[in-house]
Amino acid sequence: MEIGFKGYHPIANLIFFASIVVFGLLFKHPVTLAVCFAAALCYYIRLCGRKVLKSFLLFLLPMLLFVLVINGLFAHYGTTPLMTLPDGNSLTFESLIYGFVLGLSTVTIIMWFFCYSEVVTADKFMFVFGRVLPAAALVFSMALRFIPLYKNRLRTIAEAQRGIGCDYKTGTVKQRIKNGGKILSILITWSLENAIETSDSMRARGYGLKGRKNYGKFRWSTKDVITALLMILLDIVMLVGYVKKSVYCIYNPYVIINPSADFGKTYFVNELNLTLNPISPLGILTLSAFTVLCFLPIIIDLREDIKWNRLKSKI
Amino acid sequence: MSKRKIMSVIVLCVLIPAVVVGGFFLAKGKQYYFTSLIIIGLSMLPFFLSLERKKLQVRELVIMASVIAIAVVSRAVFFFLQQAKPMCAILIITSVAFGAEFGFVSGALTMLISNFIYGQGMWTPFQMLAMAMTVFLSAVVIRTFKIKNRFIVGIISGIFCFAVYGIIVDLSSVFMMLSEFNFKSILSIYLSGLPFNIVHGVTTGVIVILVQPEINEKLDRIKIKYGLFGEKI
Questions:
Q1: Which of B55, B65, B122 sits opposite A113 (nearest CB)?
Q2: How many interchain CB pairs under 8 A, A with B?
């Protein structure tokens, strides 16, 4: 039994990840970016633990810098020059800020995808899409089973080949490719003959006859339904907020955060051409809906942790 | 015209332009990533639908599954070649024997499955389409001109692998990472991906040249023996 958000119904998991990716890419407001990044990092750490530090330093941080540098150097928009580059163009405040925004949102989405890989495993994916495309789903699930099987076969074949002096781990590159190819070719003979036998056996047991149903491991429970409905409600709120442009931001030609309003106080930084408008009630609603959505899996996980610890302490 | 062809014509001539125009006007041309995702989904649709429709023999489906698994596993054999993914080579060799449509579907599914092992990302749909197109195009070219010489086969698959796969996969970085599309910024993204693409193309070509004859013989044998993929017994 999986715990926390991981143990929820696959469709609930997919609704969460779909909405987080869509709205994470649509909203470019500084608050949503920060919230989305923080939530992704928390959930990623919660799922993967120590691995996070390594992937963050080696993969995500360089990526953020790469996006920042490319946009800073090559994007020629914006009106506030900060300095002049060697090729005569100027580095603008706007392109730097927008480069950072893009880099941060890219890194955040990648982290959500890492979480997705942990939560939506292949069997859940199959469960959801297997009904729409049954033949493709059959191929998909059989291939998943064949992968570990063929890995074992590959090892067996490679050991036998090494016994007769055709090792693919030593020798010149050409020889190694040749020997590797030989091993693959043996694997192909073995596996394809086997595949024919498997399929004959499947047909003998009635594959493809009418009136057969799929086996599904997952059931809807009350908590799944409530979570799914909550997420759809949040999606609707955010969609309305997006369409009405309540969390609207522009980074070109000037940086303007929030749409202009006739209430509240507008801050204006002259040197950077930066406008900071007050946020509308709908904007606040949209931002809080987004925050709840982002932290939903962490809240669910923590609630279960607390419950579990309380039960444990009662024993 | 077969049903699949009619379907492809509808998708290519009506739906994809509609998505491009719709994405341009509705999102004011800002949501390149989502627009491209929809286009990728649409372009793969006819092939997957024909897989469902055609009532393929069970044997052909199971063979497709084992080809996919072999392609994923083959990575372990050539681990000593850095950055070398022999997947593309294996898929091209099998689809030359079994047909271009077989190659398209198995290419897309191979990338999907291997990403379940090595990590999903926003590049997954792009990789699926890229691999499918690479395998499909090279199989179409090699099968139409009935090329038998393994060196020419290897060079063709290397070029397709370098060009088609590289262009489509790096497009995902272009859409994600750039705020403004100008020649310099796009060029810089493609240049940073160039070494990987060259290595990928060259290793694919070399592997095809070295192992194609041996594997092809076996695939042909199984095709003729069981009368699969349109072969008459």
A1: B122
A2: 199
Query: 3-state DSSP call for residue B99?
Result: coil
Measured distance CA(B101)–CA(B46) in Å, rounded: 10
Min Cα–Cα distance to chain B from A278, Å: 25
Of A73, A113, A143, which has the smallest distance from its Cβ to B120's Cβ? A113
Identify from B73, B150, B225 which residue to disrupt to test chain A contact, counting A C-beta atoms within 10 A and taking the largest count: B73
Q: Give the model confidence (pLDDT) of B176-231 as tens digits.
A: 777 667 777 788 888 888 888 888 888 888 888 888 888 888 888 888 888 777 76
Residues of A in Cβ contact (< 8 Å) with B74: 184
- The pair of structure tokens assigned to A177 is 């490719």
Any bridge partners for residue A257, and if so which?
A: A249, A276
Q: Which residue of A lies nearest to B64 if distances are taken between CA atoms?
A: A139
DSSP code string of B172-232? HHHHHH-SS--HHHHHHHHHHHHHHHHHHHHHHHHHHHHHHHHHHHHHHHHHHHHT-TT--
d(CA B50, CA B140): 17
User: How much is the ipTM here?
Assistant: 0.83
